[in-house]
Amino acid sequence: MKTPQTLALDFDGIICNGLQEYFQTTWRAYCQVWSTSSGTAPETLAQQFYHLRPVVETGWEMPVLLRAILKGFSEEAILQNWPNIRDRVVVEDDLNPKMLATQVDAVRDRWLNSDLESWLALHTFYEGVIPKLQALSEQLPIVIITTKESRFVKALLQQAGLQIPDDRLFGKDCRRPKAETLRQLKTTSPTPIWFIEDRLATLQTIKQQRDLTDIALFLGDWGYNTQQQQQAANRDPRIHRLSLAQFGQEFSGWLQS
C-alpha cells in the first residue's frame, strides 16, 4: 500500500476524548426534554453512558440513550440492538430527532459562550495524537471529517494548538455523509488518502462505495468502539485495526497486525 499523501481523521474518539462533556451536555439537554425531580444525574448513569457511547452515531441520539438506560434497557440489549431500541424510545416518547439535535447544540453553545474554560476542561486529547498530527501536518494535508459542529471543533483545536485550515475541516454543518466528503476530497487533495475513524459502521458504509476502494480505512481502537467491533475489523480485509501505539509510528507500522 502506498504511503498516504492526505490523512483524514474523525475528531471525537480519534483526536479528542469528549466523554465527560458529552455526558454533561446530554444530561442538561435531557432535563429540558424530560421533567426531572432533581437536576442531579443518578450515580451510575455517567459510567453506563460512557460504556454505551459507541452505539451513538449522531448527537441527537445521546439524550435518547440516557432515556433508554433510565427506562431499564440493559447494556447488553442496547449494545446488540440499539437502532430498534432508539426508534422505539423515539415513538413512545413522541420525540423529534431534529429538535433533539437543536437542543443538544443549544446547550453546548450556551455553555461554550458563558463558561468556555469549564467546557474546554471536560475534554482531553488522546496521548500523543496532537504532537503526531503537528509533525505530520508539515509533511501532508491533515483533514478532519466529523459529525460534530465545526465551531466546537475549532474551539478545541485552538486550545490544543493544532492549526487546521477551514477548508480542511468538515463538520456536521457540511450536511453530507462522510463517504461523500471523502469522494469530494479525492478531487481536491493529493492521493492516496488514508482515513481513520472509530465507528465501524461508518467504515463499513464507506467500503461499500465502489469509487472509494482506493481509500485506506482504519478503525482507531482507542476510540468509541467495542471489543466486538474491533474483532469484526480484524476479520475484515478492507479495514485495518489501528492502535494508539501504532498511530505514533511511521505509516508502515500502521499496516502491521
Structure in words:
This protein is of the alpha/beta class and 257 residues long. It has twelve helices and eight strands. It has helices at residues 19-33, 45-52, 61-70, 75-92, 97-114, 116-121, 129-136, 150-160, 178-188, 200-207, 227-234, 244-247; strands at 6-9, 16-17, 124-125, 142-145, 169-170, 193-197, 216-220, 239-242. The strands form two sheets. The protein has a six-stranded parallel β-sheet. A two-stranded antiparallel sheet has the order 2-3. Helix 1 packs across helix 5 (97-114) and helix 3 packs across helix 4. The longest helix is centred in the first third of the chain and has 18 residues, at 75-92.
Seen as an oligomer or otherwise, the chain set is single chain
By CATH, the architecture of the largest domain is named 3-Layer(aba) Sandwich
Which term fits the overall shape? globular
Helix content: 40-55%
State the low-pLDDT regions, or none. none
Please report the total strand number as a whole number: 8
**CATH homologous superfamily identity of the largest domain:** HAD superfamily/HAD-like
Break the fold down into its secondary structure elements and pairings.
Layout: E1 6-9, E2 16-17, H1 19-33, H2 45-52, H3 61-70, H4 75-92, H5 97-114, H6 116-121, E3 124-125, H7 129-136, E4 142-145, H8 150-160, E5 169-170, H9 178-188, E6 193-197, H10 200-207, E7 216-220, H11 227-234, E8 239-242, H12 244-247
Parallel strand pairs: 1-4, 1-6, 4-5, 6-7, 7-8
Antiparallel strand pairs: 2-3
